[in-house]
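User: Study the fold:
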Amino acid sequence: MTKKIRVFREIGKVVVNFGSLTFASLVLGTIIRGDYDRMLLMLAGFGGSVVLIVWGIIFLTKGEEE
């Protein structure tokens, strides 16, 4: 396995995990803290998480190519 492929795979894993953590933290923050508009926080959480997860999947698939 070349170094470039390995780097893409590792970056992809990290970005997917970061997307999952972002989603969980924003959802829990929305539930626990009621000071902000809940729908806006939920949409921001969903949007940010989807972008990070898709970006991570792209990196993972680039890591599979040879």
The first helix runs from residue 3 to 32. The CA atoms of residues 9 and 31 lie 33 Å apart. The helical segments are 3-32, 38-64. The mean pLDDT is 77.
